[in-house]
Amino acid sequence: MKQKKLMSIGEMSKHTGASIKSLRYYEQLKILKPAYTDPGTGYRYYSSDQSYLIGIIMFCIELDIPLKELSQYVEADRINFRNFLARGKEIAENKLIALNKGLKLCEEIERQMDLTELYEPGQLYPRKEKEKYFYVIPCPPAKDMSPAEQDKLFLELPYDENDSIWFGEYGFMYEHTPEGVMRYAFVEVPNHTNSENVKVIPGGIYYCCLSKAGQIDNASEIFKARLAGKDSFIAIETEVMSNTFEIANPLGELRVI
Prior knowledge:
This protein is α+β, with helices and mostly antiparallel strands. It has helices at residues 9-16, 20-28, 50-62, 67-70, 81-118, 147-155, 219-222; strands at 6-8, 36-37, 44-47, 74-75, 78-79, 124-129, 132-138, 170-177, 180-189, 198-201, 204-212, 233-240, 251-256. It is built from seven helices and 13 strands. An eight-stranded antiparallel sheet has the order 6-11-13-12-8-9-7-10. Strands 1-3-2 form a three-stranded antiparallel sheet. A two-stranded antiparallel sheet has the order 4-5. The longest helix has 38 residues, at 81-118.
């Protein structure tokens, strides 16, 4: 049998793109054993076939698979490709889902920034909104709460811990009826549930206004002309992202339907 040519650790580093330090670290984790180690000098040599394994290890790093986890797929210098690739596919698919959600987040922020460029604060404008679902909890008038009290209130809302990139709206919603006003803090949820705390918010044409957050208690006055003759309506106030976002004094969008 023809003896395979061995490469020094430096040659293997150049061949695969993995640094010498990384190759030594892979050896420490027992996921890459040199084909031969000179007992006199301690120099390490690798066979050309091992470049495939190094490629797999580097792919593992790209997928954020902990290298210590990779060791469970390696036994006696053999790697279980099927199990490893199944794991790699699972992680890659999860990353793809996260990337798509991240792109949707960017699109939503860009939509909000476009609004702030189209309209001046205080200007009324119509905008079509789709049906949404809000998880709500009753609250006092927004104007009667300090910023710290509002923050504490929003922390009580059930944000989905398993969907960290979900970018739903949050803010205040007032339901005006002849009997009075019901006030809520809300967070948008992606799906309708049977929970009594989830309200279906109708889609349709909303009249909107950009202003500094905290104007929902003045909605009746701000939209007086649009609400003439109506004794029932919904007012919603959310924060919006602008090109220059002021953390201490954010811009809000107030809308009624």
